[in-house]
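Practice problem: predict the structure.
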Amino acid sequence: MSDRIIKTVDAPAGIEGQGFFAGKLDDLVGLARANSLWPLPFATSCCGIEFMATAGSHYDISRFGSERMSFSARQADVLMVMGTIAKKMAPVLKQVYLQMAEPRWVLSVGACASSGGIFDTYSVLQGIDRVIPVDVYVPGCPPRPEQILDGFMQIQELAKSEQRRRRDSDEYKALLASYGIE
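Answer:
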């Protein structure tokens, strides 16, 4: 057996050696995450019908690597809340969110999920951001499939650019604590 000499490769000029590989790994993991998101549709009203159109051949959400809808919270990455959420449904929504593994993202679709919509009543939750943190809001009543796809692409950008260590940061833990989530 011959002795082999192992050469170390220096980082390119202007880049610190220790952060070079970790930064590139974050980029690779982000790219993989962004193009393989599995959505969990939590649809209660007319926004759910508009969402169904995004999976059809005309709009085709599978172009974004998300044709596999996950109806199990433990295997989903993106919680897509669509429609009116009653206050009695809020604990169920929070439980579904808690069952999802990290990293997880939330897309609030339509006026009802985002702000209660036209239903300013005692029984309707005035925005899901009162019980779980929301990453992207999609406006409209109901929003067009193009708007839903645009919101989904914004989630992809978040997944692509998020560092792997962000979920362990004190700021993220404080955000979850503000929602009563440990």
